[in-house]
Amino acid sequence: MCKSSFTSYFLVFFILSFLIFGASKTGLLNPLDSFFKTIFSPVQALTYQTFTKVTDFGQNSQILMLKAQNLILTQKLVDQTKLIADNEALRDQFQTASPRSANLVEADVVGAPGFVPGLSFPETLILDMGTNDGVRVGDAVVYKNNLVGKITQASANLSSATLVTNSSSQFIAKTLETGASGVAKGQGGGEIILDNVVLSDNLKKGDLVLTTGAINLQNSGFPPDLTVGKIISISKNPSDLFQKAEIQPLIDFTNLQKVFVVVNY
Question: Between the CA of residue 116 and those of 95, 119, 157, 159, 186, what are the distances in Å?
């Protein structure tokens, strides 16, 4: 008899549980759920606040004050460190002979889509300056006298700079010592090559690669003699029409925090 009663109760609870589960999945219990949340949410909030106050009550008031002061000092340290870095970047940039400081718009790097430190390399940078600041698509982006990339998108307050190492980047370049000319092509992953160099031109390991200049009628583009990088290896086959060289940039794009956009060159 007892066994039969137990089986009956079990079946009843099982069926009720199944019905409640099905009703919750189909949304039939949403009105009841909202009702109970409305009733118990204030109680839950009050309980949490009371627990927090009890926890704080157990702490020394002087310790709490020291914690608050520590947060303020930490923020001041962050602000001061950033100010020092900004002032150093500005001083170094404006001491550079070319491009002229009058043609430069200072911009902070606020994003690098797809970049994961240690796993990938930045291909584009998001800057906190846009068309309202005079930045236009096609403008060169520099750091000191080094070419960083080119503005490829611009909104009112933001812009996107495609790095010289991006696989979509290519422009005419020349070597400093030997005067060999070719096409600098981004390879992605932080790599650049100087391609389409005729076999008769002399390529030299360690030679610097510079922009030849590519300013359009709208005063936008790459000014001449910006540093692209230095040659670290040369590939030359007498049976080929051209030779090429691998270029290593002189700046670390993964650590750039401030750059300068060349406007109205």
Answer: 33, 5, 25, 20, 19
Domain range for 224 is: 101-262
In a domain, 173, yes or no: yes
User: What pTM was computed for the model?
Assistant: 0.65
Q: For residues 16-33, give the mean pLDDT.
A: 59
SS3 195: strand
pLDDT at 221: 79
The answer to whether residue 154 is domain-embedded is yes
- Write out the two tokens for 187: 């390879």
Phi-psi group of 189: left, alpha or beta (phi > 0 → left; psi -120 to 50 → alpha; rest → beta) = left
Q: Which residues pair with 162 in a beta bridge?
A: 124, 150
Could you tell me if residue 76 is inside a domain?
no
Q: Residue 210 has which token pair?
A: 């510079």
Averaged pLDDT for residues 196-220:
88
Cβ–Cβ contacts within 10 Å for residue 173, how many? 27
Report the CATH number that the domain containing residue 207 is assigned in CATH.
Answer: 2.40.10.340
Residue 96 placed within a domain: no
The reported pLDDT for the residue numbered 131 is: 95
For the CA atoms of the chain, what is the radius of gyration? 32
Q: Using 50, 70 and 90 to split pLDDT, how confident is the model at 94?
A: low
pLDDT of residue 144: 86
What is the number of domains present in the chain? 1
